[in-house]
């Protein structure tokens, strides 16, 4: 069970996590699997390329690919946006699920992450996916 509420949008963290899991899994070609050796951590990929890491333990958060300029703006705008991984901080952001980032913004950032990764796929890989 996660903490009771999310300050950014008033939903429980369980509801926020369920919504985000559904959003990430619904992307065309999205595949997800637990990260081996890290309970509560799920990787989301499209055509084998990672676009999100969802963590539901300790500090629930999602790590997303992001345009570098937008990443800097988001870090200044929200206390809940930062960096929390070995991934290049210029291109990846961490969004705390129990922070000041509205769920609609998290969903938009998840779509942005997916779109960035999908755009780098080969034309053949892109053609095999349904429109996003």
Question: Can you put this structure into words, describing what you see?
Answer:
There is one protein chain. With 132 residues, the protein is of the alpha+beta class. It has one domain (13-121): Aspartate Aminotransferase, domain 1, CATH 3.90.1150. It is 35% helix and 23% strand. It is built from four helices and six strands; from the N terminus they run H-E-E-E-E-H-E-E-H-H. The protein has helices at 13-25, 68-77, 103-119, 123-128; strands at residues 30-34, 41-46, 49-55, 61-65, 81-82, 92-96. Strands 1-2-3-4-6-5 form a six-stranded antiparallel sheet, covered by helices on one side. A hairpin with a 5-residue loop joins strand 3 (49-55) and strand 4 (61-65). Helix 1 (13-25) packs parallel to helix 3. The protein is globular, with a radius of gyration of 14 Å. Residues 1-5 have low confidence and may be disordered.
